[in-house]
Each structure stands twice: as structure tokens, then as C-alpha cells.
Design goal:
Blueprint lengths: L7 E4 L5 H12 L3 E6 L3 H13 L4 E5 L5 H14 L5 E4 L14 H29 L2 E6 L12 H21 L4 E8 L8 H4 L1 H9 L9 H12 L10 E4 L15
Parallel strand pairs: 1-2, 1-4, 2-3, 4-5, 5-6, 6-7
The protein binds NADP nicotinamide-adenine-dinucleotide phosphate (NAP).
The site of NADP nicotinamide-adenine-dinucleotide phosphate has 28 residues, from α1.
Length: 258
């Protein structure tokens, strides 16, 4: 029997990038999958098709994670059509990079409403079900930026820092109900989100500063999510798994002449 057989996983932002790889990884472990999406209906339908080809049930569900009512309706639909859910992966996210000096009110609010608001809304919507079931797993997709400073990322890093703080507190509150809450902190992983950063000369220079000298792959992030979603991490809650080739462990001041 596969480790997630009989479980239903809802993955927000499942239509593209890291979320798409997470849907594939959870389906490979036997979970039925609800693919959350906003604008990419065609891509979400493809992810559903790929999951079904692995022998699990899958549906695509549209919801703007920044909107509490839409997230609530999404969770209800997943429960009605697939059961559960038992696993929530809060993965949907956006970036609106820029220097603080240039950022306008919408630049931080939109990022905060989607990234942190999405995690808050998703968590709020599944908690009553998870508590009634006496089980549930939440995996939040944060970022190494949550714990580090970088130019042009103040709004994004703040939204991810909020996710980390929220993960810790929610883990404490939910533990007594048999619910685990953890987060994955990806480093640079080429997707549409970071396309401009990892291409060209600036991309080469960033890569050189990563101890493993290469960018991450969406499947590598998905492996960490799969671990946190499954029974092998049954004693982990309030934990953070960094998937970044060593980037966040480096001091980042070049090399000494040894
Ligand atoms: N890639 C990296 O290097 C990296 C590093 C650290 C952390 N992360 C985090 O990993 C997560 C996934 O990023 P990615 O790189 O895979 O990005 P991506 O390729 O741009 O995909 C973003 C996903 O989020 C969905 N989404 C965006 N806004 C949404 C909203 N308001 N409501 C619902 N869904 C929404 C998109 O759905 P539609 O296409 O259907 O609109 C899409 O499926 C994000 O939380 C990101 O911050 C990424």
C-alpha cells in the first residue's frame, strides 16, 4: 500500500511550477489530489490528467487564495467531491520585487494578501475539518528569503517571514488535535516566478554563490513536501525544511584566500 493511499491532498498553486511537482509527488504516493489554481485552467487540467494517470482521483478547483470566501468554498468542494481533505499544501505565491523606495501600497499588500493571506485562509478553512477528523497535515511553502535579507525582496521576504511565524504558532495550537504544521523553505528554483532572476549574467553570479553551485529543481522541493505530508515525518511539527543547495547557510561574503 502506498503511504498516502486513502488521503486527499489540496495543493494551492498546483497548476504550475513547484505546486505542479507537488501534485505529481503526492499522487505518486497514492493521494487523491485537488489542484488549486487561479488563472491557469488549462495547465491545472493537465495536472489533473497526469495525476489520474497514476491511478488516483483528481480535480481542479479555482480559487483566489487571497479571498477567504473562495478558499472556504474550495475546501468545501474538495470535501464534497473527494472527501477530506487530510493534507493541505499552502503553496500559491507571487512576487512583486522592487526597492522599498519604489514600492507602492499595492506592491506590499498584494504580496501579503496572496502569500501570507493564502496560508491564513487555507489554514482557517481546513482546521475545523482536521479537528473533527482528529488528523491533518499542513505544509506551508515559505522561502529562504523568510530568514535572510536581499535587495528588492522586502515585501516578499516579509510575507514569507509571516508564514514562518504563523507556522510555529499554528503548530503549537494544532498539535493536541493530531494536526501537524510544517514549512518548506525553497532556495532558487527556476520557475515562472524567478525566471528573470536566474537567467543571464545575474543568474550566473547568483549560482556561483550557492555552495552546491546549481539551482534547485521543482521535484527536489516536492520531495521535501512529500516527506512532510507523509507518515515518515509523523513526529515533526513546527519544523522548517530548507531546500536550497546550502544557499541560506552561507555567510555570503565571498571566499577567504585559503
Ligand atoms: N521558485 C522559487 O525559486 C521559489 C523559491 C522560494 C519559494 N518559492 C515559493 O514557492 C511557491 C510556488 O512558487 P513557483 O515558483 O512554483 O511559482 P509559479 O511558477 O509562478 O506558480 C505560482 C502558482 O501560484 C498560483 N497563484 C498565484 N497567485 C494565486 C492566487 N491569488 N490564488 C491562487 N493561486 C495563485 C498560480 O496559479 P495560476 O497559474 O493558476 O494563476 C501558480 O499555480 C510560492 O509560494 C513561492 O513563493 C519559490
Amino acid at each position: 500500500m502506498k503511504p498516502l493511499q486513502g488521503k486527499v491532498a489540496l495543493v494551492t498553486g498546483g497548476s504550475r511550477g513547484i505546486g505542479r511537482a507537488i501534485c505529481a509527488a503526492l499522487a505518486a504516493d497514492g493521494a487523491d489530489v485537488a489542484v488549486g489554481y487561479l488563472g491557469s485552467a488549462g495547465a491545472a487540467a493537465q495536472v489533473v490528467e497526469e495525476a489520474c494517470a497514476r491511478g488516483v482521483r483528481a480535480i481542479a478547483v479555482r480559487a483566489d487564495v487571497a479571498e477567504p470566501d473562495q478558499v472556504e468554498a474550495m475546501v468545501r468542494r474538495v470535501g464534497d467531491e473527494l472527501g477530506g481533505p487530510h493534507i493541505l499544501v499552502n503553496n500559491a505565491g507571487i512576487a512583486r520585487d522592487g526597492l522599498v523606495y519604489h514600492l507602492g501600497p499595492d506592491d506590499w499588500l498584494e504580496v501579503m494578501r496572496t502569500n501570507f493571506g493564502g496560508v491564513f485562509n487555507g489554514t482557517k478553512s481546513v482546521l475545523p475539518r482536521f479537528m473533527a477528523q482528529g488528523e491533518g497535515v499542513i505544509v506551508n511553502v515559505s522561502s529562504v528569503m523568510a530568514e535572510r535579507g536581499w535587495i528588492g525582496e522586502s515585501n516578499y521576504a516579509a510575507s514569507k517571514g509571516a508564514i514562518n511565524a504563523f507556522t510555529r504558532c499554528t503548530a503549537m495550537e494544532a498539535a493536541r488535535f493530531g494536526i501537524r504544521v510544517n514549512a518548506v523553505l525553497p532556495g532558487f528554483t527556476p520557475t515562472d516566478l524567478v525566471g528573470g532572476l536566474v537567467d543571464g549574467d545575474s543568474g550566473k553570479s547568483i549560482r556561483k554563490q550557492i555552495p552546491m553551485r546549481r539551482y534547485g529543481e521543482v521535484e527536489q522541493v516536492a520531495s521535501a513536501v512529500r516527506f512532510l505530508a507523509g507518515p515518515e515525518s509523523s513526529y515533526l511539527t513546527g519544523s522548517f525544511v530548507t531546500v536550497d543547495g546550502g544557499a541560506a547557510t552561507a555567510l555570503g561574503l565571498g571566499r577567504p584566500s585559503l
